[in-house]
Design a protein that fits this description.
The protein is α+β, with helices and mostly antiparallel strands. The protein has 19 helices and 19 strands. It is globular.
């Protein structure tokens, strides 16, 4: 019996820690990873009764409960205790800190139509938002409430006392400096809330005024500079509670927090900076001067021209930024010129979740694309096209016929089983049925819904069906397809055909089969795999 596992490389894993992280089906829900037990369900004196290490990982038997677990080497390496501080995607370590010169005058940007429709472009823009702190989308429709569609493209709108959306334009009796034409210095929004809205979006509908340019400052960079150059001031601002308040006829919001918020490991995690909303500091009189000295030092770093990147929002531009890190500002403008923005709030955790899922999905799509590039470049069972050309042609026929996305994907991927099964396509041509339709469908089922996988599973059966029920279909088969038909069982009997026709996806499989037979033209020009990336990624979510 032992209280910890010591791997051959010397890494140590406490027994209770291992037992608490068992990922078997009895301990965790597959997919979500949510545990099916509580710590109180585990004996406090758990030990390792047996441990066997092999090339795949380590198999462990625990006592006193006798539970058996398996931990792969990859999992153990990823989660090894004590090797690194825990990752926090909101803290400074996960960010690319910047002053204006570091960006070289280049504003991270993207295009709205692509952001909405192309998962790769959306992932690129969200990565900029989460690492650099902001991104500008061009081409957002100049239409009322369009900013809400941008927020909903990656997450959810955070509704506040301002509603789900707010207007930024000059008002006759403004209750907020934002509703004037005056200059606004760098600040974060809503510091009087807990939690603070973490993403702010501002969409330009009109900007015909002289002035009114936007500016952004990286508060994390300024705080890190303060820590390096004036550590005492940094210490004051990370430990002094500051009260922020906003009150009007319908709201009275107050919270207290330091100007610079840290995580438990001392990493910069949040900036609250808005002099307009600060209430009197509740400190002993002999500490007030020190606070204001530190506050002024931080302000000077934030207000430096070299800290700010400036740009002008034109109609159709929408800037998104991390309101817990990035301070936004505006130059004064002429009140006689129309300047109208609409804004809303969203949440960083939704953006981070969307990016994580996009990256996971894009990895799947990249894996499929690599199959097309590698194995797909080879010959297609004696036909005059390669395997990849055949599948791309099949998808093009499906798309031209107006097939739904799932069936287009099935057409594109219908022969993937030739690449992933234990029996190759060459063995099929030597007389051994590789059941590639089932192998491919089973592989795709890990990622795609049944509307994709089941036409793939049935496309070989559909050939046998058509040869049985449609006069002349057998004669239209190529020599290679005729040969594989006989290996795969030949035309169906009447009973088999009736059973096939009753299957839920039989109609789609028959359509796929027709496109399959037509997709063997060495002269055809069709879209490349990249054309189908957005479609495949959308389907991965269903």
């Amino acid at each position: 019996m032992q209280t910890e596992l010591i791997r051959q490389d010397g890494a140590r894993f406490p027994a209770l820690w291992l037992r608490d992280n068992c990922s078997c089906g009895a301990c965790q829900i597959p997919g979500s990873g949510q545990k099916l037990f509580d710590l109180a369900d585990l004996a406090p004196d758990i030990v390792i009764a047996q441990a066997d290490e092999d090339a795949d990982g380590v198999r462990v038997v625990f006592a006193p409960d006798g539970h058996r677990s398996h931990f792969t080497h990859t999992w153990l390496d990823t989660h090894r205790p004590g090797t690194a501080p825990p990752h926090d995607d909101r803290a400074e370590d996960a960010k690319a800190l910047w002053a204006a010169a570091d960006l070289g005058g280049v504003v991270p940007s993207g295009a709205w139509p692509s952001f909405a429709d192309d998962p790769g472009e959306r992932a690129r823009c969200l990565d900029a938002l989460l690492t650099q702190g902001f991104v500008v989308l061009h081409g957002v429709p100049v239409a009322d409430r369009a900013v809400l569609a941008v927020a909903r493209a990656f997450g959810y709108v955070r509704e506040t006392n301002y509603g789900e959306m707010f207007e930024v334009r000059v008002e006759e009796n403004p209750a907020n400096l934002a509703f004037t034409s005056r200059q606004i210095l760098p600040h974060t929004d809503n510091p009087y809330r807990d939690p603070v809205p973490t993403i702010q979006l501002l969409h330009c509908l009109a900007n015909a005024a002289q002035g009114g340019d936007s500016g952004l400052v990286d508060g994390f960079h300024a705080a890190a500079t303060l820590r390096r150059e004036q550590p005492d001031a940094f210490d004051v601002l990370t430990h002094t509670p500051v009260t922020f308040r906003y009150a009007d006829s319908g709201a009275d919001l107050t919270t207290t927090a330091p100007l610079i918020g840290l995580d438990p490991l001392g990493r910069i995690r949040q900036i609250r900076f808005n002099n307009r909303s600060m209430r009197p500091i509740a400190l002993e009189p002999d500490r007030i001067a020190g606070f204001y000295q530190a506050y002024r030092a931080f302000s000077e770093l934030l207000y430096r021209p070299a800290a700010r990147i400036g740009f002008r929002l034109e109609p159709g531009d929408c800037v998104m930024f991390d309101n817990t890190r990035i301070l936004h500002a505006r130059s004064a403008f002429t009140a006689d010129g129309a300047r109208h923005l609409q804004g809303c709030y969203a949440d960083l955790d939704a953006a981070a979740s969307e990016l994580a899922v996009l990256r996971r999905d894009l990895d799947v799509v990249a894996e499929l694309e690599q199959l097309f590039t590698d194995q797909g470049a080879g010959e297609y069972l004696g036909e005059p096209v390669s395997q990849a050309e055949h599948m791309l042609q099949t998808a093009a026929h499906a798309e031209a016929a107006g097939a739904p996305d799932a069936l287009v994907a099935a057409a594109l991927l219908h022969d993937i089983g030739h690449f992933t099964g234990r029996i190759s396509g060459h063995q099929l041509m030597n007389g051994t049925d590789n059941r590639h339709s089932h192998t491919g469908a089973d592989r795709l089922a890990a990622w795609f819904p049944r509307d994709v996988t089941e036409p793939v599973r049935l496309h070989v059966a559909a050939k046998r069906y058509l040869c049985a029920v449609e006069p002349g279909y057998l004669q239209r088969l190529s020599p290679a397809s005729l040969y594989t038909l006989n290996v795969q069982g030949g035309p169906m009997s009447d009973t088999e055909a009736d059973r096939f026709a009753a299957l839920p996806h039989a109609e789609q499989a028959v359509a796929l089969r027709r496109w399959d037979e037509a997709a063997k033209d060495p002269q055809a020009t069709v879209p490349a795999f990249a054309h189908y990336r957005p479609l495949l990624t959308r389907l991965l979510r269903t």
